[in-house]
Amino acid sequence: MIQDIAPHQLDNSFKVQTPMYSDRLFIFRDKKVLVRKTDGDIAIPLFSNITPYWPEVSDYARYLFSIDEENFFLVDESKANIVLPSEYGLENINIFRTMEPQHLGFAGITAHQLYRWYEDNAFCGRCSHPMIDSTIERARCCPTCGYITYPHISPAIIVAITDGERLLMAKNGYYQHFALIAGFVEFGETFEDTVRREIYEEVGLKVKNIRYYKSQPWAFSGTEMVGFFADLDGDDTITLRDNELQDAKWVSYDEIPQNRDHLSIAQEMIEIVRQRKHTTLNNR
To answer: Do residues 87 and 185 share a domain?
Structure first.
């Protein structure tokens, strides 16, 4: 999965530090990122690539995290007065899905998650005063009313529902391919409660033998995906009960196409079912 970057290691601890020439920087514009294009390759810029603008850029650079010995910063382009040469351009953040080496793609989408949080918390949600960065932790603080907010992470479940030699697959309005049932955790719910509720709300089915698989930080949507396998309990009739799904169907294991791209937990879980390896997981 995209976060599996070993032997590289992410250090997301909070630090206050200034960039060096060997560090990397991110400049985002909504869902696009500034990249350096040389000889057909796309790369995350180094501060050494923009030395003519060093004072402006370094003054408006926020330290984000490090991977191994490499530091990553977020630069506020609206404050840093820079004009970059022609080899720089904007690309959709989806380039991080396939960027090599993989740890740089993971760094990119994680940086974008923090960028969105900073953008969404420019002003206090309680009194509307401009927010400032904390000097002791990763937080945005209101100097007027004292409100503090931290990076937002939304927990969500994703579940592979099986019945004999069949897997339930569904399609919503955002994507053209069939995938697994997923949904956000609501207040007062356990993850298992969310599994039962989402499945019943979306396809009108009941499940049993719910068992945890693993989790994945999915920065593309700011979620922490928590994966489960579950067995059908009773009637297998699919009834689309809300407007989220366009279609849902039972698919034979033999009809599931092989997927070599295990970028997401959904792709990995589908492949596990296709290979019938989910049956070795402990029942709960």
So the answer is: no
